[in-house]
Amino acid sequence: xxxxxxxxxxxxxxxxxxxxxxxxxxxxxxxxxxxxxxxxxxxxxxxxxxxxxxxxxxxxxxxxxxxxxxxxxxxxxxxxxxxxxxxxxxxxxxxxxxxxxxxxxxxxxxxxxxxxxxxxxxxxxxxxxxxxxxxxxxxxx
Amino acid sequence: xxxxxxxxxxxxxxxxxxxxxxxxxxxxxxxxxxxxxxxxxxxxxxxxxxxxxxxxxxxxxxxxxxxxxxxxxxxxxxxxxxxxxxxxxxxxxxxxxxxxxxxxxxxxxxxxxxxxxxxxxxxxxxxxxxxxxxxxxx
Lengths: 141, 138
Prior knowledge:
Chain A has 141 residues and is of the alpha/beta class.
């Protein structure tokens, strides 16, 4: 009797697989590997896209005696003042916009007290950038 | 009672194919959308901000500043003097290098301003502060 060919063997094997409703190739090792890959990519990848704001410090002597600069001070106790006048965070944007309209392009200086968290300074920068101010510098006392 | 034997004709394995399909989809999702990043030298949570633009993939110098003021250049933690001299050396090679600062949101702002001034003295022209958009959190 002639020995069966490879194809015949395969057909026979797959026929018997259908009969028993068992897969010819076990999926379990594949699933294991895919799970491990999935866990690796879930843990190793980050989704936050990097964004940045430009930071400036004024050049030495640039600000001295310049009447076109506006000073925003951030106090340690959470209060704010604009050119020495106490304001709230909500008023800041409107007041800053008012300054631009009345006197034109101005340079804004943001001066946080010691102990003020960076997040608060960034919030002030946000409010100022939102009014369209481009020139904002950070200074310390 | 009729017990089911393992060799029964009507025995069905639980269908794992739909599970594999979904796992494959998740895998492809994470592979395509996630960026694999090396863990950073310091644990830094950047401040949230609504302003700020996307930064082009340029070769920048990255400085990490942790909440307690510790500094790291790229992936090595170092003292301020060492950091500044390392940066001035890097700037000698390429004048146009920008500096990205990833500072913690609870860092004392004065510490950051002092660092900015020192960096400016070493000849840094462009300083970028890394921020995170509020909706980036999930």
